[in-house]
Amino acid sequence: AVFAAEAVVWAAAGVLGPLAGGTLTEWLGWRVSMLTALPVLLVFVTCCLRVLPDEPPDRAALGGLGRLWPVAISLTGAAIISAPALLTGAALQLGLLLAGVGFLVLAFRLDSRQSNPVFPRRSFRGDRMGLGMWVMALISFAHYLAQPFTALGLQEMFGLTATWVGIGSVTLALSWSVVAIVTSHNRFDRWRPGFAMIGPLGQAAGAGLMAAGMGFGNLALII
Length: 223
What we know:
By secondary structure, the chain is mostly helical. Helix content is 76%, strand content 0%. It has ten helices and no strands. The longest helix has 31 residues, at 128-158. The chain is globular.
């Protein structure tokens, strides 16, 4: 049920986000399109102010905020990893990437030594829990690394406007949401082990079709 609800939210965001962002980019520029998330953030803050109880702060909870410093280290590492996009020079870019990864490793190692860690204690280890975290991280990295280049490729190869590129992104988001909504139903519980293999194979097939579409200049294969 949780995954189904999340999929519905993703579907709505997947439809409205790329269309609104692409249209605003085409008409007003990409700087304006970056503000499309601002109304959602304001609604979120307003809802929090109305829902959260009006009680004095818990001193113990506030004192526990000090254990969040590994999060700050990991965010610093993420920022360092992003820095090469703004710089030139292969050696400098490689050095920053390695430094960013080092910060991330340090954050998880130090956090695992705390009595109440922020991240799962076995994150990125060699056991089942750690390998599962690696899979989740690599899926996210692969998705967010490929998505910008796919959008740029669609614009350069097929001469699509930002709006039509946004529509292409909608197709990707909706395909994920539809599959998540269907497979999260309890009638598919006995098929879960099979989904564990079908899911990666489907991802690989989709990536192969996108690569073939880019290689042969066939937009239908990409969609």
